[in-house]
Amino acid sequence: MCHIQSSVCFSEVWDKSESGEWLCTASWKTHSGSVWRVTWAHPEFGQVLASCSFDRTAAVWEEIVGESNDKQRGLSHWIKRTTLVDSRTSVTDVKFAPKHMGLMLTTCSADGVVRIYEAPDVMNLSQWSLQHEISCKLSCSCISWNPSSSRAHPSMFAVGSDDSNVASGGKVQIYEYNENTRKYGKVETLMTVTDAVHDIAFAPNLGRSFHVLAIATKDVRIFKLAPMRKESSSTGPSKFEVQIVAQFDNHNSQVWRVSWNITSTLLASSGDDGCVRLWKANYMDNWKCTGILRGDGSPLSASSGQPISTTVGSSLLSQNALNGISAGRIGRRAPFAPPLRPLTSSKIDQTPAYY
């Protein structure tokens, strides 16, 4: 299951057949402008998608089973449940919050505003209420929720900016929920990231006391954010010790997408070099490239460019393990959906899509 950004207004859902072949089971017009991103809700909430577009809107879609006419027989039938129209500029990213927070949807837009919506009734996806509206002061290009469900970690998300003005300062901001004010406040700015940011991704947190954030800019960067101890009586925002643990310029070009595997042991990145590169840390926490894939999925070695095995450690690296990172500029990302979900993409007009 995967999503691909598009230069046209359509989205597609793909299913994998028993023979291993991917088949398009649904294709429909989702917006009146270019579709920038598509994302899945957790399967706990049903077959639900959200999309965002240059047309200044975000939309929520739900699959209806067994309601299709003869012309569409055999295809999935997707219904638009709502359109979110609060943004006055292009909506550049859309993400569902981690499932432990309930059915919540976050958007960011080119005017620098992050909006967080909630569906009060998960059985009625036509009703969404705007819970938070946060001004980031910079044009927003991407967002990522920290997936940690630990009570020790307040709800947190990161926002990236594609503002090309280096003088405007750090392009990644971290926001955290404050129980006392019941609002999200900025707790950190990564001042060393001054170039345009195209994608950010928190790593899944499997019991760690710190957070790991990957950033796609002119290179690949991995940051460690370790919360500093607060006094028991303190009610102020968290403070973090920020450390960059890895930085790679192997793409020799702009990096467009980064994505973690489910155990946060493997990071995949894609860039304008048309390749997907895989990064893994050893027991000393030293990161290195463990494999390179061409846009068509064929492997290369990290040094000689010769075909290599895609085995990483003791586990075989499959397309699923990549979480669907894609290469190229128009079809820049194809993240796979949660288990038991079909493949999603946006239709690309005469441009090769890479899965």
TrEMBL record:
Q: Where is this region: Disordered?
A: 336-355
User: Mind listing the UniProt keywords for this protein, alphabetically?
Assistant: Cell cycle, Cell division, Centromere, Chromosome partition, Kinetochore, Lysosome, Mitosis, mRNA transport, Nuclear pore complex, Nucleus, Protein transport, Repeat, Translocation, Transport, WD repeat
Asked whether the keyword Plastid is assigned, the reply is no
**Gene Ontology MF annotations:** structural molecule activity
What name does the UniProt record give this protein?
Answer: SEH1-like (S. cerevisiae)
Q: Organism source for this protein?
A: Oryzias sinensis
In its keyword annotation, does this UniProt entry include Lipid biosynthesis?
no
Q: Which GO terms describe its cellular component?
A: kinetochore; lysosomal membrane; nuclear pore outer ring; Seh1-associated complex
Q: What is this protein's function per UniProt? A: Component of the Nup107-160 subcomplex of the nuclear pore complex (NPC). The Nup107-160 subcomplex is required for the assembly of a functional NPC. The Nup107-160 subcomplex is also required for normal kinetochore microtubule attachment, mitotic progression and chromosome segregation. This subunit plays a role in recruitment of the Nup107-160 subcomplex to the kinetochore.
State the WD repeat positions: 248-280
A Pfam family it matches: WD40
Which cell locations does it reside in?
Chromosome, Centromere, Kinetochore; Lysosome membrane; Nucleus, Nuclear pore complex
Name the SMART domains on file: WD40
The Swiss-Prot or TrEMBL record describes its family as follows:
Belongs to the WD repeat SEC13 family.
Q: Which terms does the UniProt entry file under GO BP?
A: cell division; cellular response to amino acid starvation; chromosome segregation; positive regulation of TORC1 signaling; protein transport
